[in-house]
Design brief:
Elements lengths: L1 H5 L3 H4 L1 E8 L2 E8 H14 L3 H16 L5 H25 L17
Antiparallel strand pairs: 1-2
Helix pairs in contact: 3-4, 3-5
Length: 112
């Protein structure tokens, strides 16, 4: 199992900083490339820019908690939760029984 993780492309866990504006304040955020990729995927699914999504997360966590001691950690955990939710949703779709209107055809056994 560890082989799969150890052989990951190092560029995925290399950090990259981006500067964005949150309510007029320039803020620098340093995250791993893979985290940036997941944030971009999340933003695309929401019809937003990555920066717009990050500002939305910041606003929502501030509304909920009134402070963010470690915003980059929050973003990493948010990405992991997003990926986990996608896996769980995929599993539940795969487990759903056939829907009404599905035709089931009986096959005749072969005789030799």
């Amino acid at each position: 199992m560890c082989d799969y993780f150890v052989k990951a492309d190092p560029i995925l866990y290399e950090s990259r900083s981006r500067t964005l504006r949150i309510h007029g304040v320039l803020t620098s955020i340093r995250l791993e490339n893979m985290v940036w990729d997941v944030l971009a995927e999340m933003a695309l699914s929401e019809g937003r820019t990555t920066n717009g999504l990050i500002v939305q997360f910041h606003d929502e966590i501030m509304t909920q908690r009134n402070e963010v001691p470690n915003f980059t950690s929050f973003l990493r955990v948010t990405c992991m939760r997003y990926l986990r939710r996608n896996i769980e949703e995929s599993k539940s779709v795969a487990r759903k029984p056939a829907t009404v209107g599905t035709t089931v055809v009986a096959l005749q056994a072969r005789t030799q």
